[in-house]
Amino acid sequence: MIIAIDGPSGAGKSTVSKAVARRLGFSCLDTGAMYRSIAWQALQDGVSLEDGEALGRIADMHEIGFSHEPGDPLPRRVSISGVDVTDAIRTAEIDRSVSAVAAAPAVRQALVAQQQRIGRAGNYVVEGRDIGTAVFPEAELKVFLTASAAERAHRRVAQNERRGVGSTDYAEVLADIERRDAIDSSRDTSPLKPAPDAVQMDSTGRTIEQVIERICALAQEKG
Ligand code: C5P
Fold first, then answer.
1. Burial class for 74, CB neighbours closer than 10 Å (0-12, 13-18, 19+)
2. C-alpha R_g of the chain
3. Pocket of ligand 1, candidates 6, 85, 129, 160: which has the most ligand atoms within 8 Å of its Cβ, to mutate?
4. How far is CA 221 from CA 77, 83, 217, 218, in A?
5. What's the chief localization of this chain (predicted)?
């Protein structure tokens, strides 16, 4: 079974996906981490973020891996060609660069193929922007999770403070979220939009716990 969770930055997808996966005994796949890893590699290699073909070659050449911490069933560490980039892909520089990388059709083609291979191997909660529309259009359950931009920026600042990486400046984080929303929603290839059969949930003013409960209940109805 595939549960697709799409939505804009900071809507709570990662927290919700991990919690739902834990409760249902599923694995989870953070596809945003894959686009971030390609952005990291492009910056390392000095590749222009406007050169879609060169970005696509990076996505074709490098293997992205997910690994587990001891005793944790959910994959938490991300690597690209064997280099651990778990923290390095959460910086403000990657926040600024990733949407340009994700708009390149050749990058999407390479990563979508990898995501389909991973997800088809078992029961997965897959989070991203285009999971219900492009990666797994046949997913048994599709959720489109949103929240106001202001609430998403507050949550992202709190998350960055906890992790000790990324910007903790509210105005900077809000501006980045609004800029990424605009690029992600207007790109030609797989723009951010709900699948026609997605259940839409607005988490503004709701607790994450309520969102998790609702998704688990819907999954149990389907499964
Ligand atoms: O989810 P996260 O904020 O880590 O995603 C980073 C960026 O990767 C998004 O802003 C978007 O540009 C891109 N992305 C995408 N498609 C996905 C997941 C992420 O285009 N399925």
1. middle
2. 16
3. 129
4. 32, 40, 6, 5
5. cytoplasm
Predicted interface score ipTM higher than 0.95: yes
Using pLDDT thresholds of 50, 70 and 90, give the confidence band for residue 10.
confident
- State yes or no: 168 annotated in a binding site: no
pLDDT digits (tens, 9 = 90+) for 124-140: 999 999 999 999 999 99
Is 196 annotated as ligand-binding? no
What is the model's pLDDT at position 119?
Answer: 94
2-209 is a CATH 1.10.10.10 domain: no
For a substitution probing ligand 1, which of 2, 5, 31 has the most ligand atoms within 8 Å of its CB? 31
184 within ligand 1 shell (Cβ under 6 A) = yes
Task: Output the six-digit token pair for 222.
Answer: 């389907």
Nearest-CA residue for ligand 1 atom 12 is: 99
Task: Say if CB 36 and CB 159 are below 8 A apart.
Answer: no
